[in-house]
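Q: A reviewer asked whether we had any structural model of the full assembly, not just the individual parts. We don't, so I'm hoping you can provide one. Inputs are below.
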Amino acid sequence: MAIRFEDIKPKVGSRVVWDDRDDLFTPEAAEAIRKKVQERTVVIFPRLNLTDEEQLLITDLMGGKVKLTGQFNRQKTDENVYQVTLDKDVNPQPEYVLGTYFYHMDGMPIELPPPFATLLSARKVAQKGGQTEFASTYAGFEGLPEEERKALEELTVIHSVKASMIPIQDAIPEEDYERVIGIQRERERPLVFTHADGRKSMLLGTTADRVVGMSIPESRALLIRLVEWCAQPDYSLRHDWEEGDFVIWENTSALHRAIPYDFESGRMMHRTSIAGTEMVDA
Ligand SMILES: [Fe+2]
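A: Here is a predicted structure for the entire assembly that you could use as a starting point for your response.
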C-alpha cells in the first residue's frame, strides 16, 4: 500500500503517511481514505499543501461533491470551494462562521441528505485559537449502556438553522437579526443514524432544537448531555492546525467546532463537501 494510516487516539482519528504524494490522487487511495473516514471519523493529512484543483480531485474521487453555503461569500476561488474565514473582504456575513464555535454537524436542516464528509485545507492559520475539535458520536453512542441506546433509537429530533444561531443571537446587530434568525428551515431527523454498514452514530449539535414529543426543557437537557458525553476526552480530538494541513471528517459521526479566533487573524480554510447518499429523514 502506497499510503498508510496511524491511529491518533484509540477511538477516534487517524493520520495519513505517504511516500509519494501522487499516490494520494488515485481511485484506490480514495477508496482506502473513504473507508478510513468511516472507521475512524477524522483523518488528518499533515502539511499536504493541496491546491484547490487537487482538493476537488480528492473530493470527486471520494464521492459526489455538494455545495453548501458558498453563496454567502465573495468567492475568490472555484465555486465548489467555500472559504471559511472571518475576513470581511471575503465574508460579509460572518454569523455562520461565528456559529461554528459550537459543536455542530454541517447541513443538518437542509433538504438534502446530510453531507457524508467535510474536507478542510488550512491556507492560513490563526496565531491564537482556531483549532478544530471533533467529538465522535459513534464512540459516544457505542459507549452508552444498552438500555439507553435502545431508548434513544426511538427518538427523532427537529434540526433548524435558527437553533444553530441561538448561542450567538445577542451578538447579531439589530438590522441583521431577522435575516439571520428568521430563516424558517427545519428538518426532522432520527437521533440515531444507522449507516449502511450497520454502525450507529448520533445526529446532534447546535442545529438540534428539540426532540419530537418531549418537552422543550427535557429535550434540550438530553441533547446537551449527549453532546457533552461525546466530547469526553476518550471520544474527542483537538487538531492544532499547521499551514497546509488537510483534514477529512465524516460529517454524520463527527461533531465539530472551532476554538474562537480573531477577525484580524487572517485564518483561512478552504472547504469542500461530499454529498450524502441517504436522506436520513425521520
Ligand atoms: Fe461545520
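A: Points you may want to mention in the reply: The chain has a mean pLDDT of 93. The radius of gyration is 18 Å.
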